[in-house]
Amino acid sequence: TITETDATQQGNFVASINGGATAQEDIVLSFTTTDGSAGASDYTAQSTVSYTITKGTSSVNIPVDVLGDAISEPTEDFTGEISITNANGQDVSLNTATATSTINDNDSASIAINDVSVDEDAGTAVFTVTLTGNIQDQLTADFTTADNSAVNPGDYTTNSGTITFAAGSVDGATQTITVDIIEDAIAEPAETFFVDLSNLVTTGTASISDNQGVGTINDNDAISISLAGFTITETDATQQGNFVASIDGGATAQEDIVLSFTTTDGSAGASDYTAQSAVSYTIAKGTSSVNIPVDVLGDAISEPTEDFTGEISITNANGQDVSLNTATA
């Protein structure tokens, strides 16, 4: 038994006289190898090669070259067989004419999947699985997609199956996995999903060095927000008027959109309404607008029509592509 390296080594069959007796005269043997799972690329075969247990000795080494490589492969074996071609008059028989030699491999291979980032209108995301090392026999691995912030079927289409690297594949060989991306008209942050590898099967030593590819879908939809004011008739008591910050076109927010609201006096001032400065309001996920209430103060004073201004700014869009169409009203 020998462990293969990247270079040629010598392994030895040994033909020996049972019981440690010595030959009185030379005993000439013929030696032949026969392939098992190991073949011509693994060792140097021999056919009817002559070896001699010389007079006065009890054994002879029969060297066989074991060929090194950088290929991941299973444990392999081959057989050697001897026959007696000249006993020089001695009464010699064969107790065990054949023996098996085993070659243990020292090479390994691995596969890894990459991460992919695509725009929502790309149509597909193509992941690449790369082989590191060389393989003798076929290598397969299963794959399946999994939701993260991106979900099936709204953002992408689930896919699963098996990738196959053919026997004899070399370092740097690749296989691809394609996932369909769903385009919509919704403004949303960049979202991610996974492609997971599992269940690697091959005959040699191999592993999965990176079993999860991350797919990022970059949104291509933008939304804008407009602020609308209000008109109210003053009474003797405090009333509430509402500015409305709404997403244009009636689209809905995929994530919260946080706004900051500030009032500025016009002809109306502190005696007419309750001012606000950098007060936070949120267009909640799944909605298209938010009311911004302002207290209008009543009195018994005859006065002209008065006005004041409200202004919004965006403090947190949570990754969405959001702009202001009308910031003041």
TrEMBL record:
GO cellular component: membrane
GO aspect biological process, one term: metal ion transport
Coiled coil segments of this chain: none
Keywords from the UniProt entry: Calcium, Ion transport, Repeat, Signal, Transport
Residue ranges constituting the Calx-beta domain according to the UniProt record: 99-198, 213-313
Family matches, as PANTHER family: NA_CA-EXCHANGE PROTEIN, ISOFORM G (PTHR11878:SF65), SODIUM/CALCIUM EXCHANGER (PTHR11878)
Protein name: Calx-beta domain-containing protein
Originating organism: Christiangramia aestuarii
